[in-house]
Amino acid sequence: xxxxxxxxxxxxxxxxxxxxxxxxxxxxxxxxxxxxxxxxxxxxxxxxxxxxxxxxxxxxxxxxxxxxxxxxxxxxxxxxxxxxxxxxxxxxxxxxxxxxxxxxxxxxxxxxxxxxxxxxxxxxxxxxxxxxxxxxxxxxxxxxxxxxxxxxxxxxxxxxxxxxxxxxxxxxxxxxxxxxxxxxxxxxxxxxxxxxxxxxxxxxxxxxxxxxxxxxxxxxxxxxxxxxxxxxxxxxxxxxxxxxxxxxxxxxxxxxxxxxxxxxxxxxxxxxxxxxxxxxxxxxxxxxxxxxxxxxxxxxxxxxxxxxxxxxxxxxxxxxxxxxxxxxxxxxxxxxxxxxxxxxxxxxxxxxxxxxxxxxxxxxxxxxxxxxxxxxxxxxxxxxxxxxxxxxxxxxxxxxxxxxxxxxxxxxxxxxxxxxxxxxxxxxxxxxxxxxxxxxxxxxxxxxxxxxxxxxxxxxxxxxxxxxxxxxxxxxxxxxxxxxxxxxxxxxx
Length: 493
Hints:
Helices cover 34% and strands 24% of the residues. It has 493 residues and is an alpha/beta fold. It folds into three domains: 3-85, MurE/MurF, N-terminal domain (Udp-n-acetylmuramoylalanyl-d-glutamate--2,6- Diaminopimelate Ligase, Chain: A, domain 1, 3-Layer(aba) Sandwich); 97-322, UDP-N-acetylmuramoyl-L-alanine:D-glutamate ligase (3-Layer(aba) Sandwich); 332-487, Alpha-Beta Complex (Protein-Tyrosine Phosphatase, Chain A), CATH 3.90.190. Strands 9-8-7-10-6-11-12-13-14-15-16 form an eleven-stranded mixed β-sheet, with helices on both faces. The protein has a six-stranded mixed β-sheet with strand order 17-18-22-19-20-21, sandwiched between helices. Helix 12 links the parallel strand 19 (368-372) and strand 20. Helix 14 packs across helix 15. The termini are far apart.
């Protein structure tokens, strides 16, 4: 590309300097600039890309995209919104890869990951060769790609979509966060299907109000959905009427309360999964899932509805879902066959914690022990609410660290303690490893230990550093120690 071609992509942009500069690569991080790069200066929440223009120039940048005029000693485009400009340029630079695949976006507070995994299973069975981009992994078949965010920055996203096309992918399932929608990471893209799971208070550190949070989610349906596409929406949510009014495509609703185009009824549920009867027009189909809980019945309906919107039949959808044996860190059973059950889950909002606790309660023969914490640099308001659910729904609660990030752990725990209305059957153990060992140590035959908050994560973020930590591995070690103690007749306490 040349700079004049870039200008044509961005409405109301102004070009300063030579229009014939050749663009060999794109960058928005000055550390990634190479000879011939077009560097886009983005104003972030911690850093301003305009402060790194001299570094980008020294590393070989040949042109810039900026939001303010200046003597940059390089040709540049002046734009109103550099994030949107990066999205537009990236999409064209990588030759519009999303147009070459079926593009499915899944948004909502909870359930995005599980719904996406179920959709991957359905599309695999239907031979639609899906790529998967989300919180747990970016992958295509057995190949994984590096990634840090639920939804990548626009340039990284387009690069990965282009790679999926080159590998032969025919479809892609993406988790689409409210951050990604509001910050235009999916700008210049059009989705064939947009899926809405639910909305509960979350990301108060980013969204000034719950209305702003909802409006950001709605962008998937009123801004980024094809007119010929489908909005697949949970009819049992309070937000459904608003999202349906915002949906510029066709609509398909799903429900467990008989309100949807697609309806479901839970026939059986247990620790190994559930059986869901689905009703679609005059058809009904019983579908088995290797996932437990009412919340997973909703996730399944979201995936089934998407399959129907794509024109797949219920038999194909059912067979595809059966291929999904579990989702990493989502109500994941650790140590099968043990006398003590241990489940790890990502639940990190009041609603998701309540859901997994209720499901765990249904399958715990005896006592339910909860080990959980709250993340730092996130909504302080949700901490006492999560604690209230914890003491209400669990028999024994151990409060510990999650990802403190840049906050003091002691303050996070103090915030959590304001949700306590009793002091019995509660412990506070700040060290998460010790807390997990303690929870499993306390458990007796028939008890269930739920470790909530981090799920699939393999590290703990403390004061800007990332320390290796996996709840599942720690729990496995704790189970092994408990077993050794039992075999030796020892009291590990």
